[in-house]
Amino acid sequence: xxWDDVRVFLSVARTGQILAAARRLGLNHATxxxxxxxxxxxxxxxxxxxxxxxxxxxxxxxxFLPRAEAIxxxxxxxxxxxxxxEVSISxxxxxxxxxxxxxxxxxxxxxxxxxxxxDLTVQLVPVPxxxxxxxxxxxxAITVERPDHGRLIARKLTDYTLGLYASADYLHRNGGPSSxxxxxxxxxxxxxxxxxxxxxxxxxxxxxxxxxxxxxIASALGQTEAVRAGAGIGILHAFIARPDPNLIRIxxxxxxxxxYWTVSHESTRPLxxxxxxxxxxxxxxxxxxxxxx
Length: 293
Fold this sequence. Notes:
D-Maltodextrin-Binding Protein, domain 2; two-stranded antiparallel sheet; 3 domains; nine-stranded mixed sheet
């Protein structure tokens, strides 16, 4: 069994398409199809149901997948073990993060990682509702919940808090609530409920049983901008809202606590550029933890 054929199998399994796998591997479509056929012949099994719309793993293919990932992990570990420590960190690292943390905190700071490792390309992408590290949609994901299944490695990055905020203009026009029950008399800004992909993101439930938002926005940064513009009262990340003098904390004794986690797939543990990025994220938070206090 050829390792290159196994590598092709994994890429097709993760992308669901021969063409997408070819692009990811830097090979042409015909080469990927040929190597896939070669592997199936070596194993004497059909690994995929191929169609014009994509490739779906057969039962035998699904059973082979964890074995292939174990082979991949061993190959990566071997490469890392014999690699020259003096060789620079290179390649592409893709980090997936929620928009609040990713855009407001990481985006202004990830340039430090590329400066430290000039041969490394860093990609920052939003974490969508459905997301898979096993399919390599990202090398590292920042999540708001610790995963409880799969071959994943999770480490707590930092705690953070959220509170009630309104703009100075809104409070001048409408006054502020003196208690949570007074929120019913105000215009509330909230998330789009059916697009909340994790219960940990349902912040309003921690404040009150009923949050009748008049203005719903699926993005944390979008909610921040709406509150800043005076559209109403919202639940904002304190590390985003605190530096803005126009955003006024309401009922400051009441807050929500959450945590961010770094999550990576077990098979990427030996990859030097993944390790370098994880180390950078942990060092960054250690230096700037007061932002999240």
